[in-house]
Amino acid sequence: MSSTGGAEVLVASNRGPVSYEMRDDGSLHAKRGGGGLVSGLSAIGPDADAVWVCAALSDGDREAARRAGGGRLPAGDTGGQQVRMLDIAPDVFSDAYNGIANSALWFVHHMLYQTPLEPVFDAEFRRQWASYQAYNQAFAEALAQEAGQGAVVVIQDYHLALAPRMLRRLRPDLRIGHFSHTPWAPPDYFRLLPDDIAAELLGGILGADHAAFLTRRWADAFVACCHAVLGPGIPAAGETRIGVHGLGADAEFLRKRSHEPDVDERMRALREEIGEGRRTIVRVDRTELSKNIVRGLLAYRQLLDDHPEWRERVVHVAFAYPSRQDLAVYRDYTAEVQRVADEINAAYGTAGWTPVVLHVKDDFARSLAAYRLADVALVNPIRDGMNLVAKEIPVVSDDGCVLVLSREAGAYEELGEDAVVVNPYDIGGTAAALQEALTMGDEERAERSKRLAAAATALPPAAWFLEQLGALSG
Ligand code: F6P
Question: Cα separation of 102 and 131, whole Å?
């Protein structure tokens, strides 16, 4: 504890490191999550005085937050981590998370609108915006309560763009960072947003001492938006500093975890599904519009048309895990992925060969099994903040893999040289890239894969997190 009785380091994010499921008998079952922030935070050691503030996402979470009386969750549930889960009213949460964050902001930063009819910034949107403000204010207030004098606070992502400024007003003594995990839209696209809201979002992040991004491209786009919306001199020198920290894969964890018995078992099952001696094109995504899964399937179909010699000899292993299913547009996309995969299997499949092996039930061990088996990794998002799958597969694949990578993924900045690069909209170009990947010589493939793995692990989560803290310590 600091001298004033609050924490010294605070992390804020929408999704926290633990989630709860309510059982029929009313008991709560805690499930710990993984990801960059969880392993990053472990870098500061178990004795560090750190608190993680997150939102209650499910009914089980809300019940756990209530049982904790608005305070921290039981340490037994969180692996010893101090976690405060905010019980935000469900309608306010839904407006902020579904309505603003995963509709308006996600669509703007990933440039997903079909602009003749979208976006619709009407009275309903304004109502949702008020909820987004309230959600951000709830985080700012909790952080202000939890933080010791002069503490360091790192606020994560597009859900919490307003919180830095709100927190600054409540606690001018704190050192505040904001980290964006998404791309940042260029000014012409960002300015689809109503002018006052565009200015409020930028001003919210500029409330931080340090605003950080995954790549130089997104950082430059943020600054360009500040100039276009707020004025050419903003951010002024000496105010918010801009940083770039390219989160990498956690090689140590992945290499160990991918050789545990449950992964071996799933490899056996997958091999059976794929069939003896066949090549694999692997993709693993949350089913989410920016991931461009449908165009990936269409490119695979074109490969089978252009190069019929691959029929019966290759399988597209596509794991597409449904996400954000409260929103119709995400549900429709999930159904479209299934429909196109089924169509390809019906048109090309034979008694002994299923061209597309699609799995939709999230299973981390099976994802790792697919990573190990990958000959080709397909990562073709329309736009992506980083895309960690592009970094993880080369680290885990048993025999080295060829990475087919969208030039619009943040990972392109670090991996572009050794990947086969595609324009994500170009289905024919992606089919040609798959052909190039499948026919690459063993030596070249091994060399490139080695370099990809090295570049992908340059900044593992622990170092990435320490860089965020370090940027605030000067
Ligand atoms: O890509 C930005 C990001 O915040 C990731 O860090 C995270 O995995 C995802 O989006 C959040 O998804 P969800 O809506 O499932 O929490």
Answer: 14
CA distance 17 to 202: 27
Backbone angles phi, psi at 180, to 5 degrees: -95, 125
Q: Which residues pair with 242 in a beta bridge?
A: 211
Picking from 429, 426, 377, 421, the residue whose alpha carbon sits closest to that of residue 402 is 377
Q: How far apart are CA 128 and CA 134, in angstroms?
A: 10
Residues 6+ apart with CB under 8 A from 135: 55, 88, 92, 93, 96, 97, 159
Q: Which of the listed residues 11, 15, 330 should we mutate to test ligand 1's pocket, taking the one with most ligand atoms within 8 A of CB?
A: 15
Beta strands in 112-263 (DSSP E): 147-156, 175-179, 210-213, 241-244
Closest CA to 241 of 267, 219, 217: 219
Q: pLDDT per residue over 13-47, tens digit each?
A: 999 999 999 999 999 999 998 888 888 888 887 77
Query: Which residues, in sequence order, are CB contacts of 228 under 8 Å at separation 6+?
Result: 187, 190, 191
- Cβ-proximal residues to 167 (8 Å cutoff; 6+ apart), any chain: 139, 140, 143, 144, 153, 155, 174, 176, 207
Backbone angles phi, psi at 36, to 5 degrees: -60, -40
CA of 461 to the centre of ligand 1 (A): 16
258 CA from centroid of ligand 1 (Å): 23
Candidate from 29-38, 79-88, 156-165, 180-189 with smallest mean pLDDT = 29-38
285 lines ligand 1 (CB under 6 A): no
How far apart are the CA of 44 and the centre of ligand 1, in A? 23
Which helix (H) or strand (E) covers residue 362, if one does?
none
Q: How many A from CA of 340 to the centre of ligand 1?
A: 25
